[in-house]
Amino acid sequence: MQPQQLDIFDHSRDTVLGNDVAAALERRDPSGARSAWGTFAEEFPKHESLAPLSVLVDALEQRVAVPLQDHESLHDARRALSEVIEPAALRIFGKCAAATWLIPLWREMAQRAAHLVFRPERHDDHAAALWLRAGDWSAANDAVARIASWRRIPAPLAWMAEARYRAHDLDGAWGLLAELAWLSPDRFDQLTKRLADPLLERLRKAFDASFDGHGDVRDLAWFPAWVLTEKPSLSALLGQAQRSLHTEAEQAMRLLLELLGLERQGRHYEVVAQRKALRDAHPSLYAAYMRTR
What we know:
Layout: H1 13-26, H2 30-43, H3 50-61, H4 71-93, H5 95-112, H6 127-134, H7 137-145, H8 154-168, H9 174-183, H10 185-195, H11 198-210, H12 223-230, H13 235-238, H14 248-265, H15 268-281, H16 283-290
């Protein structure tokens, strides 16, 4: 079991000294943190908090503003922050405080990576992903917008969808989420799990339980169309999705949008024809639609 984070209410000598280091870290005072760490290490050389505290002191001392040289340098720096520094911050500060403490480090890395162009083979090594970690949704949006054809590439499309969601909640992201589901069901799966949106989670649970398809992540391409059978009120928001790869799943959603519009207009004969087209497109989707009729 991982040891607990430092307890500011524990007045034992080792806790007091450890808290002195943590307080200097929170002030972002590298010299004060190094001095406090030295005192702590001298009196308690085998204390379990020394190693993670040292990692965080090093992180403050090594902060630089110069641009990263290349994608390889960014890759190494990003991994060090996420795999070494972040776990140490979690150990010392706890989840919420650690996230706050790390924001300036993610922001600085994003700024240092701003000049590096997007490379599909290094899709995690781009400023947009770092701005998301820093919680700057506007900067992430702008970084993605500078990527040519970002709507046709899974990683930047997912970044933009997340930035829109964080800035405008689910209503502002439905169109992009639909495009992502069509383009990359796997990325859609990862993103929606990370967002942990209550409505998305409820819809996803119902979809997984009822939709008869491949039985794996590929079925999520049909999720936007299926959502319309459960929440026709989302027609306007899902209708904002731009035309993508013209897959069967995309065409099915657009067919449902037309069908719902025809129903509202009372155009019975055209509704019958469109229902047949929907049944031919995907029987399980058609069954979901008919359950509400």
